[in-house]
Write a structure and sequence with these properties.
Blueprint lengths: L1 E8 L3 H12 L4 E4 L11 E4 L2 E4 L5 E2 L3 H6 L2 H4 L2 E2 L4 E5 L2 E5 L6 H9 L5 H19 L16 H7 L4 H16 L8 H13 L2 E3 L6 H8 L6 E2 L4 E6 L5 E5 L4 E9 L1 H4 L18 E11 L10 E3 L8 E5 L1 H4 L9 E7 L7 H16 L7 E13 L3 H5 L6 E3 L2 E3 L9 H18 L1
Length: 432
């Protein structure tokens, strides 16, 4: 029976970050992943030569934790244009970053898309959140005892007009957080706004799965075992623990770390070990992928819908093949449409409803878009209301030799997943 310093159950980003940290500290590690590939929720499917991510995902290259674990150059990031095209009343209006696209930002003000007062408050918000992140005052991964506001409450308290909240914040950050009520905790919003303001929204060449694949390739040979489904974790009288796989193989370790997906399945853990611990609740999403020959006019700019739900189901629309290479075969384009979570139409109505809505914005070429796939992700992001964040465990520690990791312990982002993995590893090291 193989014996290692630490077994990590689950090869999502958090589990991979945990493994890298432990290995850098000279620990022997075994990562067990039930699926065929690492990555967890960060996954990409190949469909007719197109690379379709599991839901609309982007990487923000200002993530400090990502700079710790990832080789940006090898990932060949391509970036979206700063800002967004906001759809309302059947037209597209540009809302640009005034620091990187000053003339476009001026046009936004002159066209009435952004009022002068709201523009000033955006500038002030940007300055304050960037300073807060630099000073460590805005850290959604930290456990804080202070009461938090919702994003909407924070925006109202900062004096933003209800019209601008509805026009920009609801569609843009509603797409980021997968909820338009803006009930996500304000600390999460402030951090995310700072990351968008200081860096770029990117996609790696060949799809988002390139990120966990790169992390997995950095592990020593034999460290990661895929198609290895854990059914039970046992504590041993002699110390440490044992994991039992579905194929009856057993592995022993001094410490074990259970990642988010596995942690939400209490059946594998010793009875009573999760007493008082509440697993995360989730927000889901749907992504509809299309192919076409002619690149849509929006190009590298994200389109977000500020139109009422009755107009159509689109939350946001993007062209990943215009952002970076590897998403579409030569001569073809890939379009992503993220569907609003509150749209209740049937799946057989969805494609037609999307085409009808997008055609008004982008013209008759939309009729030629060919439907590739519809991806439903029921567990896309952990819910991060102020209440749910107050209920987070204070650390990754569950019991002597047993730890959790996952973005539900920090904040629901790639950065949060990497932070959670590193923190779990540090607790393992401290307990050794």
């Amino acid at each position: 029976m193989e014996n290692v310093d630490c077994i990590i159950v689950g090869a999502g980003l958090s589990g991979l970050a945990c493994a890298q940290t432990l290995i850098q500290n000279s620990k022997s590690v075994l990562v067990l992943e039930s699926s065929e590939v690492p990555g967890g929720r960060v996954a990409t499917d190949t469909i007719s030569g197109f690379r379709v991510d599991r839901g609309f995902q982007v990487y923000l290259d200002s993530y400090a934790e990502g700079q710790r674990f990832l080789d940006y150059q090898s990932l060949k990031f391509g970036a979206f244009e700063p800002g967004a095209l906001v759809a309302r009343n059947g037209r597209l209006f540009s809302v640009s970053d005034p620091w990187r696209r000053p003339f476009a930002a001026i046009r936004s003000v002159l066209s009435g898309t952004v009022g002068v007062t709201d523009g000033f408050r955006i500038a002030l918000l940007r300055s304050q959140v960037l300073a807060g992140v630099r000073r460590g005052e805005i850290d959604p991964s930290a456990i804080s005892g202070r009461a938090e506001k919702t994003t909407r409450e924070e925006l109202v308290s900062r004096g933003f007009s209800s019209e601008f909240i509805k026009l920009f914040f609801e569609p843009f950050f509603g797409g980021v957080f997968l909820e338009r009520d803006l009930t996500t905790a304000a600390t999460v919003f402030e951090f995310t706004f700072a990351m968008f303001s200081s860096g770029r929204a990117c996609l790696p060449a060949g799809g988002m799965s390139s990120i966990p694949q790169q992390m997995a390739h950095k592990l020593p040979s034999g460290c990661l075992q895929t198609c290895a489904s854990v059914v039970r974790i046992n504590f041993l009288p002699t110390g440490g623990g044992e994991v039992v796989l579905a194929d009856e193989r057993r592995f022993r370790a001094n410490s074990m770390v259970v990642s988010s997906a596995a942690g939400a399945n209490p059946t594998i853990l010793p009875e009573g070990i999760l007493a008082g611990w509440k697993p995360p609740t989730w927000k889901g999403t749907r992504l509809v992928a299309f192919e076409c020959d002619k690149k849509p006019a929006c190009g590298q700019t994200l389109v977000v819908s500020a139109e009422p739900l009755e107009v159509g189901p689109i939350d946001n629309l993007s062209v990943p093949s215009a952002v970076t290479e590897g998403y579409a075969p030569d001569g073809k384009n890939l379009i992503y449409v993220s569907v609003r979570g509150d749209w209740e139409g049937e799946d057989d109505q969805l494609v037609g409803a999307i085409r009808q809505q997008a055609e008004v914005w982008l013209g008759p070429d939309v009729k030629l878009w060919k439907h590739l796939s519809t991806v439903t992700v029921p567990k896309a992001l952990p819910i991060e209301t102020p209440l749910s964040r107050r209920r987070r465990p204070p650390s990754s520690f569950l019991a002597p030799g047993l730890f959790l990791c996952g973005d539900h312990l920090t904040t629901s982002s790639i950065n949060g997943a990497l932070v959670a993995g590193r923190l779990a590893a540090e607790e393992v090291l401290q307990s050794a």
